[in-house]
Amino acid sequence: TKVEPLKDRANAKAKNVAKAPAKENKKPLEFKLHSGERAVKRAMFNYSVATNYYIMKLQKKQEERLQKMIEEEEIRMLRKEMVPKAQLMPFFDRPFLPQRSSRPLTMPKEPSFGNVNSTCWTCVFNNQDYLYHMIDHAHV
Prior knowledge:
Strand content: under 5%
Region (Disordered): 1-25
Domain TPX2 C-terminal: 31-106
InterPro entries: TPX2_C (IPR027329), TPX2_fam (IPR009675)
Number of strands: 0
Distance between the termini: 119 Å
Number of helices: 4
Radius of gyration: 52 Å
Low-confidence stretches: none
Helix content: 40-55%
Oligomer: single chain
Subcellular location: Cytoplasm, Cytoskeleton
GO molecular function, one term: protein kinase activator activity
Order of helices and strands: HHHH
Mean pLDDT: 77
Shape: elongated
C-alpha cells in the first residue's frame, strides 16, 4: 500500500517531463551596448590627458629657458662689475729682514706612549690632563 503512492508520484513526474512544452522560436531582444560611447569618452579623456601633459612639458621648458637666461644675465652683470685687481710686485731692491715673534715659546712635553692603559679611554681622549690622570690613577 505504501509502495503504490510512490509509484504514482514517479509516474506523475514522468508525465510532467514528457509533457514539457516545446520551445517557441523567439527572436532575441535587441539590446544596446554602451561600449562605443565608452570608447569615445575614453579617447576624449586620453586626448585631454595627453594635451595637458604636453602643455605642462612646454611650460617647464619655457621656465627652464627663462631661468637659464636670468642666470646668464646675472653672470654677465657680475663679470661686468668685477674689477681685476693686480697684485703688487714685491720690492727686490730691499733685503728681507725677518723679525722675531712676540709669542711665548711652547714648553715641550715628552710623550709617554708606553704607559697608556687601553682600558682607560680618558687618558687617550684627554691629552691635556693625561699627566694629572696618570698621577691620580697610577697606571702601570
